[in-house]
Amino acid sequence: MKPKSDAAIMKSLSHCMEKMTNDGYTANFGVVDQHLQHMDSGHSYTADQIQIVDFYRFEGESDPEDSSILYVIETSDGRKGMLVDAYGAYSDPEVDEFIKQVEDIKKKKGQEK
Q: What is the per-residue pLDDT across 9-24, written as a single tens digit (0 to 9) for each?
């Protein structure tokens, strides 16, 4: 059996998260009080202390509520992890506002969906 390519794997949120975890992006982040928070330690970061190194959007095939976006993040102190949010009308306004403040956002070429 031929192994799946990265492009094929990155078509679902769960597979993308698995690949990012295997690549060392293991921290679980959330947005709390306009700061990115490492959910395990409670350490918080301001928008200028993080870099979004990649992001992936996923659209639900039959239900717009299934749309999501995955942000792949590195912090100024070297922590690497992910932040997941709904995409579109169902997104979290606090996450949206925080992401708008982040100046260092990149998208790796060849992976746009």
A: 567 899 999 999 999 9
